[in-house]
Amino acid sequence: MLGRLCLLLGFVSLLVGCGDPALHPISGKVSLDGKTYERLLVYFHPLDREPNEFSIGVGETDKDGVLVLRTSAGPGIATGNYRVTFSCIQAVRGGKTVTLGAGSEKADDDRSLVTKDIVPQQYGSKTDSPVEFQVQAGENVFDFDIPAK
């Protein structure tokens, strides 16, 4: 009887520390050389842990450059240190320059569509981006202007 009770208590104590990590909101404003772009993509890559659904963040800016970041587990991201990368894909469609993002219609079948990432290559690289951010418990503000060169 005492052996079963000890086994049960040991099992319960293991479960206590096994909850999902809390997600903390990230908001802010992101621009490229002082100009805001709708659908500029922002990625947070964990530096101090293995990537999982709580620690890979993706955000997209609105026309005013306002960013809201989320993970596949929901809005926000786990605490930790992250390398930040950016992407802003533009294309000419119907004589007009448009920015393509996560909410864009697919252009896979349009072979005449020429696209270009207008973010400098260094800032789009998971290994070379100089931008790092530490997410702390609570609200986090990430304001950043990507240099053009």
TrEMBL record:
Tree of life domain: Bacteria
Stored PROSITE patterns: PROKAR_LIPOPROTEIN (PS51257)
Protein name: Lipoprotein
Origin species: Blastopirellula marina
